[in-house]
Here is the input.
Amino acid sequence: MDFGEQALKLHKEWNGKIEVVSRAPVTTKEELSTAYTPGVARPCLEIEKNPELSYVYTRRHNLVAVVTDGTAVLGLGDIGPEAAMPVMEGKCVLFKAFADVDAFPLCIRSKSVDDIVNTVKLLAGSFGGINLEDISAPRCFEIERRLKACCDIPVFHDDQHGTAVVTLAAMLNALRITGKNVGDISVVVNGSGAAGIAVTRLLMSMGLKNALLCDRAGAIYDGRENLNAEKAEMAKISNPDKKRGTLREVIKGADVFIGVSAPN
Here is the structure.
């Protein structure tokens, strides 16, 4: 099956993969007056007295914002916020289908860290959680840090933590099957963006000692020039033997290879 052609056909038929469905009946005058005015004023006033009640009287407790700027969409790269919408809708479908969590896409027309942080911060009162999605590195790290500092709801970056969690699960199962210990193996990670750095950090927190990250220029090591702040930080705690060279060279002898880079 040509999934691309099939997807194009079905996306046109679906005309969007998500929709808003009312949970409140409004088939009578009484029902309308309860769900909307004048009855709705009562829960509004209760929330005014205690904003935490917004989790009780509204859908906020089960609503996640899926936020992107469209700069790192799957393997497509920087395709813009509108072009990212099918992926964001798809993530909302996964939230609902597999966890019964309502999610709504927010595709922001700006690559500015300040703009993205301020936009999410101002909208945070409408949601119970924030899922950052497909935002390019290293900006994604700063955006996540700043949002966690200024928002009073959970902030999760899927490309970092979602990828890291499933990679760790696979690693633990592989170690169990082979009878090896995480502290005794060597791992090479190709791709030093959001996913690669998060995967490496999580594996190291579980006891991995010999991890080596690669980017387009080859192995990352302490003292290498032209590293951004995130890569420079990783260089200090990884690649204990300070190996240098291309991926082809440093992968020799490694027990595990993890590929999370863009193609070519």
In short: The mean pLDDT is 96. The chain has eleven helices and eight strands. The first helix runs from residue 3 to 14. The beta strands are 63-68, 102-107, 129-132, 155-157, 186-190, 210-215, 218-219, 256-259.
